[in-house]
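User: What would this chain look like folded?
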Amino acid sequence: MIVVKEFPNKQFSSKSELFKALKEHKDIIVSAKKAEIYKSCEKGLSVVTNQMLISKFSEASKSFEIDDDYYYFVVNSSNILDSHSDLHIPGNWDKTVKEQQGKVYLVWDHTLIRTEIIAMKNDVEMLTAEIPFKSIGKNYEGSTYCLIYKVRKDKIVNEDAKKWLNEGFEFEASVRMQYVDIDLAIDSNDEDYEKEKTIFDTYYPQIANKSDYEDIFYFWVVKQAKNVLESSLVMFGSNPATGRIQENEEPVKSTLINIEPADATHGEQNKNINDLFLI
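Assistant: Here's the prediction, encoded as structure tokens.
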């Protein structure tokens, strides 16, 4: 039997039965996903990362230069399939970087109160860059497109954060986000899923963490996402490739931990979809 997050109280006897349900209710599922404000740390993947600050990054990536006066926080990365079967692809943050520049804070644990602010919105520069996985401590091949917060070291306003960052303590990062453009990928040769199969074949090769799954037969492609209000330093990041950029460190082997979201809106999303099967 197959159980998936989209239909948490229904068991499917076969992939074909699941694929039919996904396609029939795609519009409802997409609408629910796009209506949700996600905290990516609640999306089910966690790994301990070594987040040592680096003073130079030019050897690891030619896409931008590291300034020793700044911290660089990778708050989200692409090509990682998360526990909700969502796959962020390169370019999905380009629009939000233009639109949300100077509008997002860096805070602790997604808590939007004065005492939890780490950096003010005017002091956070949003940027994207293509970074080798190994440069952010990950045992995956190739590079990943990342959303990064660049903050001057002297603009860290939280005393605990200032002290711990200066001492090189490890953190992970999580982005508060909303999906804007998302599509369904299905691995089926049935002609009814021709479009979904084309999407699957296009993006499946980009998944860096295939080995973390026994089988991948569908997923959701996040083509565009919006950063909403803030990103955070947290205990558990959104996927195994977030945190502070590092250099010349051994990659950490990925260890996945499922964390069920406690946010009520997730429950509402699941309830709306599951109501379809209570007849």
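The chain is about 20% helix and 30% strand. If you want, I can go into more detail on any region.
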